[in-house]
Amino acid sequence: MKGSAMTRGSSGAAWGRSATMATRQSRAAPTRGVRRRPALVARAHSASESLWVPPGLDLPNLRHELQRETTTMNSGAPASVSSGGYDEHRAKTPPPDLPSILLDARIVWLGMPIVSAVSELLIAQLLYLQYKEPGKDIYMYINSTGTCRADGSVVGYETEATAIYDTMNYVSSDIATINVGVAIGNSCMILAAGAKGKRAMLPNATAMLHQPRIPATGSRQAIEIAIKNREVQAQKNDMLGILSKHTGHSVEKLNADMQRPLYMQPKDALDYGIVDSVVESKRVENLIGDVKAAKQWDTEAGLVAK
């Protein structure tokens, strides 16, 4: 009796485990031959799959637009947005730099104190214009305090100015000098060294002559001071000789006038022989000859169609 009860209990437990396993397998097993109803919500697949649209819904235009937008978003390419305003009319190519435009018009600009970098650039420009078109006039505009700053502190050497002067005489082209602001010290000497009849000042410009100055270099021995004194005297004599040649005054008169800074307004500079004329601003174009119109500059720079 007891053994029979145990047998029936074992059989019932085994049958229960079998039923549980069968139920789990039936749930895990895929349904074969049964067609699931598609979801009625349109969804976008990954970039590698096509966009799914519910069957029976004929939206060719919508399908194309959604696919194009999905591809663009997945590609990471930025959207193209048309912008108006200034950028819409921006030049296709950048305009040339201003010094190049001036140099193309044979204009040399001296607008800084005369230091080594400035003198090297001016000399290079003069030589370039000479070999490009020998004999054609060069126009030098001057607004410089020479080898000193406006406060009188020395920043350059007299030899920088004489190097520019020698190059002006070396080239075969006439150099017209025009003072548009200030021409002080060696810059005034360069102004006076322009071609005769082609030296000019604007109505409110200023010219000034002073003796050579040397930069402070700290303590020196007595022999070094004597050597430097001889060098400065030689540079002073060179400057006096250049000014005498181009103004017609004697070295003695120039030396006496330069004992103190000699300021000259346009009429004074004209009387002293530094310049040959005082021109009004509207007549500058007549002084420098043919000037390209703004439209011609833009066309050559590629800013407008030819």
TrEMBL record:
Gene Ontology terms, MF aspect: ATP-dependent peptidase activity; ATPase binding; serine-type endopeptidase activity
GO cellular component, as recorded: endopeptidase Clp complex; plastid
Alphabetical GO biological process terms: protein quality control for misfolded or incompletely synthesized proteins
Transmembrane segments: 107-131, 175-195
Keywords per UniProt: Hydrolase, Membrane, Protease, Transmembrane, Transmembrane helix
Biased composition (Polar residues): 69-83
Matches recorded under CDD domains: S14_ClpP_2 (cd07017)
Region: Disordered, residue numbers: 1-40, 69-93
Family to which this protein belongs: Belongs to the peptidase S14 family.
Descriptive protein name: ATP-dependent Clp protease proteolytic subunit
